[in-house]
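Please study the protein below:
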Amino acid sequence: MTPPLRVAAIDRFDPSYGTQARFVDALIGEVALTWREAGVKGERLIEADWTDGVLFLLTGADARPLTRAAVRQFLKASQDAKRRGGRKAA
């Protein structure tokens, strides 16, 4: 099977997850499952967004699994860039 070029997932937080951490882990797990089924061992984050309780993840193939910490770091960096008007940190 040829692996996909990208895998995207989007879902809205629901209280049935219990915590936001479990919600993020569940969405990461769905992405990871798709990559594993294609024979890919890990995924890298290309884009992420959290708006109004909706989490969007766009991933590409990588050697290491995606983590909640990586998603958190990506979202924080994106938020910081928006506050700076889109300018990257020096």
